[in-house]
Amino acid sequence: MDLESRFSTKEACLSYLEKIRWPEGFKCLRCGSDKAWKTKRGTFFCSGCEFQTSVTSGTIFDGVRKPLTLWFRAVWLVTSQKNGISALSLQRQLGLSRYETAWAMLQRLRQAMIRPGLDLLSGEVEVDETIVGGPTLGKKGRDIEGKALVVIAAEKNGDKTGRIRMQRIPNANAETLEAFVKTNIQKKSIVETDGWTSYLGLTDLGYKHRRIKGESVGVEELVPRVHQVASLLKRWLLGTHQGGIDKTHLDGYLNEFTFRFNRRTSANRGKLFRRLIEQAVQIGSGTMDSGS
């Protein structure tokens, strides 16, 4: 009810986006000038370079066909429910005529859930891979024919799990796994892995590599945090999304799971709503369904 009251008009939504995008006042995207005026169409005309832009330009709301009021409701539904929402449920609750529109809206919101420039994981970090889609009979180890291979990094926070990062990868060779570690984990951190040989070059890259082996225990006990995260991911995909996810679209779902997991202790859903809106105006627009 508060959402409907506060964001009942397009103008109210645009005003909120403007405050989030330019908290200290308008800044021209081209020349950095703070001198501009609004046109009758609601766009900003820079007096310095005469560049014209709107508050939604370059954001995930750029060029969308559905009203901003509907998008704000979608953001609220996504962030206010602990386990998220499926495209079918979103379609029903927003009264959309097409399932594809709801799916495309969710994909664009998921795009905003992982922003560039995130602080790297640090301290002691477990890293391992998991296969999403279940085991294939006759296949062993890291063979992913018909499945998706996902690498997961999980910070140690005492006996608990801190922040996580995850990424769909094409294979588990050294080049792929080293690139993931370099992108997501701070140098000089302790990186714990199992005995997989593709991790052997981490020391040369500036990490303290702790290779954990154990013939008498399963791999789940070697890197327990990663495997707990992997188990929760698969349960979430199966429960909220019925497991019917094409691996080519898996990246968006990994973004959403990471966004939720790293904010799992937040009891204030309003803050999650604001955080996702903030990231939505920082991320460029992606490919959308024509009905969105």
- Give the SSE order as H and E letters: HHEEEHHHEEEHEEHHHH
Task: Tell me roughly what share of residues is in helical segments.
Answer: 25-40%
Q: Low-confidence segments, ≥5 residues, pLDDT <50?
A: 135-140, 285-291
Taking the alpha carbons of the first and last residues, their distance comes to: 24 Å
Fraction in beta strands: 15-25%
Quaternary organisation: single chain
The total count of helices amounts to 10
Please provide the count of β strands: 8
Task: Note the main sheet.
Answer: 5 strands, mixed
Shape: globular
Mean pLDDT: 87
Structural domain tally: 2
Radius of gyration: 22 Å
Structural class: alpha/beta
Strand ordering within the main sheet: 6-5-4-7-8
Give the secondary structure arrangement, pairings included.
Blueprint: H1 2-6, H2 10-21, E1 36-38, E2 44-46, E3 52-53, H3 68-80, H4 87-94, H5 99-111, E4 124-132, E5 148-157, E6 160-169, H6 174-184, E7 190-193, E8 208-211, H7 219-222, H8 224-241, H9 250-261, H10 269-280
Report what the structure shows.
The protein has two domains: 2-115 and 268-280, no CATH class; 124-250, Ribonuclease H-like superfamily/Ribonuclease H (Nucleotidyltransferase, domain 5, 2-Layer Sandwich), CATH 3.30.420. It has helices spanning 2-6, 10-21, 68-80, 87-94, 99-111, 174-184, 219-222, 224-241, 250-261, 269-280, and strands spanning 36-38, 44-46, 52-53, 124-132, 148-157, 160-169, 190-193, 208-211. The radius of gyration is 22 Å and the shape is globular. The protein is built from ten helices and eight strands. α4 (87-94) packs across α5 (99-111) and α5 packs across α9 (250-261). By secondary structure, it is an alpha/beta fold. The strands form two sheets. It has a five-stranded mixed sheet with strand order 6-5-4-7-8, sandwiched between helices. Strands 1-2-3 form a three-stranded antiparallel sheet, with no helix packed on it.
